[in-house]
Amino acid sequence: MDIPIEEYFRYHPPTPGSDRVRKHDRINALALEFAKAVDVEIEDPQCKQFAIFALQQARMFANQGITVDEIRQNLNAEQ
């Protein structure tokens, strides 16, 4: 791993001046929009539950990816 494993288990507030908050907000808004569509368009409760759970996971990993990108950029800037 090019990033120390401990970095994956810490809270990383956005670096001042970074675009990270905007990126997180965009991912969250799109995930919510998709979740609302799933809620309206799917009747089967089990399929709906699985779809929304998968969407929650996708949102979580996308947001983690945004944070990891910033961590990587900060580590590279220090070198």
Task: Describe, in plain words, how this protein is organized in 3D.
By secondary structure, the chain is mainly alpha-helical. The chain has one domain. It has two helices and no strands. The chain has helices spanning 20-41, 45-78. Helix 1 packs antiparallel against helix 2. The two termini are 17 Å apart. The model has no long low-confidence stretch (mean pLDDT 94). This is Acb2/Tad1 hairpin domain-containing protein. Keywords: Nucleotide-binding. It comes from Nostoc punctiforme NIES-2108. GO terms for molecular function: nucleotide binding. InterPro entries: Acb2/Tad1_hairpin.
Summarize the SSE layout with pairings:
Blueprint: H1 20-41, H2 45-78
Mean pLDDT: 94
Shape: elongated
Q: What is the percent of helical residues? A: over 70%
- Determine Rg (CA atoms, Å): 16 Å
Oligomer: single chain
Order of helices and strands: HH
The N- and C-terminal alpha carbons lie at a distance of: 17 Å
Question: Helical stretch count?
Answer: 2
Q: How many separate domains?
A: 1
| Class derived from helix and strand content | mainly alpha
Number of DSSP-assigned strands: 0
Low-pLDDT runs of 5+ residues are: none
The major sheet is characterized as: none
Task: Provide a brief overview of the structure.
This protein has 79 residues and is mostly helical.
